[in-house]
Amino acid sequence: MTHLSVAEIERVMASMPEAISNTFGQGQPANYIPALAGIDSGKFGMAISTVDGRDFVCGDATEMFSIQSISKVFNLSMAISHMGEELFDRVGVEPSGTAFNSLSQLEYENGIPRNPFINAGALVVTDALLGHVTSPKQEFLSFVRGLANNIDVHYDEEVFRSEYDNGQRNTALANYLKSFGNLNNHVSRVLDFYFYQCSLSMSCQDLARAFRFLAQDGKHPYKDKQVVSKRKARRINSLMMTCGTYDEAGEFAFNVGLPCKSGVGGGIVAIIPGEMSICVWSPELGTKGNSLPGTEALKYFVEQTGHSVF
Ligand code: DON
Fold it and tell me: Is residue 310 part of a domain?
């Protein structure tokens, strides 16, 4: 049960556009993936999905956008639903304190990425997941569609191409991992599946619904089964808290105090364990790759409701 009343959630959602209005015009959409650069930067959406099955939306909450690194949580969840914690022999659980696409840390830490949410870590998780699926892309898409309860969740070919054509850093990371013996599959197979995951399009409403399992001890939001065990859900939440927003994770914990995961498409998902999942979206990013209006919206929500894990 959420402890917040419907009226309280509706009040905060209604005042949100005004509360964050002064954050527009201070950042810019991701430009290293050209297909993301042309997006209307004035967009803002927010959706909430509560553990008792209520949905709340505001602004552009039903518009699809590129989920980008938010996919890293689906990737990790799917991988650890298939395997045990031996995954963490290949990828760490520490915040990186470096950019999400940093190469240097990987070299001096001998090819073991700091965590599953930086690009290098997600490439390792992608490689591990490849060992447990027969039709990787179809199974990944159907996993996410099931969580969101929406068959309109789809893969965006243009974003995928754009990433592939401009994926020199990710290619370098994958080659580095391979040289350290931390990729089992061919580099191109891992990159292809990784870019596919990042290229899914979903709305705030889809993402809030899809992430609800992390607010309810790993239970599937729409089916009578576990997505991951309670223990694994706790671990994913803690990784989101410490690593989900890259080298801004400390500030997120300080200012928002919720497990969060961002993507350079401008989406951020946040979890209030036992209560709800939240998704905000707005394309203008700050220097660390997190949506500025989205960050402000989460801060405002927590300040107004007093609900965070602290
Ligand atoms: O691999 C990349 O660089 C992008 N597909 C994803 C990066 C991302 O979303 C980082 N998040 N803030």
Answer: no
Helix axes 157-165, 187-198, angle to 10 degrees: 130
Give the orientation angle of helix 187-198 with respect to helix 119-130, to 10 degrees.
110
Residue 1 lies in a domain: no
Residue 174 has pLDDT above 80, yes or no: yes
Domain count of the fold of the chain: 1
Spatial neighbors of 240 by CB under 8 A, at least 6 apart, are: 73, 117, 214, 259, 260, 261, 271
pLDDT per position as a tens digit, 252-304: 999 999 999 999 999 999 999 999 999 999 999 999 899 999 999 999 999 99
Q: How do residues 120-140 score in pLDDT, each as one tens digit?
A: 999 999 999 999 999 999 999
pLDDT single digits (tens) 28-43: 999 888 888 889 999 9
Ligand 1 pocket test: which of 39, 170, 264, 287 has the largest number of ligand atoms within 8 Å of its C-beta?
A: 264
Q: Biggest alpha carbon distance in the chain?
A: 56
Q: What angle do CA 44, 47, 50 make, to 5 degrees?
A: 165
Cβ–Cβ under 8 Å, residues 45 and 57: yes
Q: Which residues line ligand 1 (CB under 6 A)?
A: 68-69, 100-101, 119, 163, 170, 198, 262-264, 289
Q: How far apart are CA 82 and CA 228, in angstroms?
A: 9
Whether 134 is covered by a domain: the verdict is yes
Sign (positive or negative) of CA dihedral 193, 198, 199, 200: positive
User: What's the pLDDT band for 205 if we cut at 50, 70, 90?
Assistant: very high
Ligand 1 centre distance from Cα of residue 170 (Å): 10
CATH number at residue 191: 3.40.710.10
Average pLDDT, the chain: 95
